Amino acid sequence: MELLNFVLGFVEAMSWPERISIATGLIYIVLSVRQKPLCWPFGILSVGIWMVVVFNGRLYMDAFLQFVYVVLGFYGWWQWMRGGENDTPLPVRTVDKALALKLTGVGIVGIMIFGYISQNILHAAFPWLDTITTVISLIAQYLLARKYLENWILWIVADAMYIYIYFAKGWTGYSGLMAVYTIMAVAGLYSWYKSMQADTVNTEAKCQTA
Fold first, then answer.
1. CA separation for the pair 162, 135 (Å, rounded)
2. How far apart are CA 130 and CA 58, in angstroms?
3. Lowest-confidence region among 81-95, 130-144, 192-206
4. By three-state DSSP, how is residue 57 classified?
5. Hey, which residues does 148 pair with through a beta bridge?
């Protein structure tokens, strides 16, 4: 009974935009872990609503991130459906060394530039922490859209950091959602790894048969 009262109080403390965004966000993360392309429209709706909320809270880097999420949402939707060879669905794969170095370089430069802008021009709340999580999340979302396994590792890091940021801003609903996202990211890492292993075994079996 106490748990039920806690959950009800938790939900009542949220605004309606928060509730809708959280509900669609949870559907999105569950479907993405299961590699269902239907995850993308739910994700687009969720981040579109949240973009307005965080902009009003002066987390400008996070608001920019949500806007990019909307764009990457449509990109990821198409990639998952027809991004593979001969317009086939994308398989799960890993990041090679060249791409890892490029993304690391882009990430460092992005943090320095946007961190400076966020602190000295926008005067945002948590300028550097907000910028770091924004850059990590952008890279993670790109990797998710392209079905790279390592996206989940970056999401674990970013979501864990967002737990603190949102709690400090008083957005308890989203802080709780980030805790759930962190757990789901761990589940996604495990699920996608098993899927990639299965695809490798099937590919090797087909080669041997041929």
1. 13
2. 11
3. 192-206
4. coil
5. 93
3-state secondary structure of 170: coil
DSSP state of 126: S
Any long-range contacts for 139-143 (C-beta under 8 Å, 24+ apart)?
Answer: 139/103, 139/106, 139/107, 141/68, 141/69, 141/72, 141/76, 142/72, 142/103, 143/95, 143/103
CA atoms within 13 A on the CB side of 109: 6
How many Cβ atoms sit within 10 Å of the Cβ of residue 47?
A: 23
Q: Is the pLDDT of residue 115 over 60?
A: yes
What Å distances lie between residue 195 and 45, 92, 125, 139, CA to CA?
27, 7, 40, 22
Please list the helix, strand and coil fractions of the chain in percent, rounded to the nearest 5, in that order.
Answer: 80, 0, 15
One-letter amino acid identity for 108?
I
Q: Which pLDDT value is given to residue 191?
A: 95
Q: What are phi and psi of 148, to 5 degrees?
A: -90, 135
Task: Give the residue carrying structure tokens 């809270």.
Answer: 57
Helices (H), 57-171: 60-82, 97-120, 127-145, 151-168
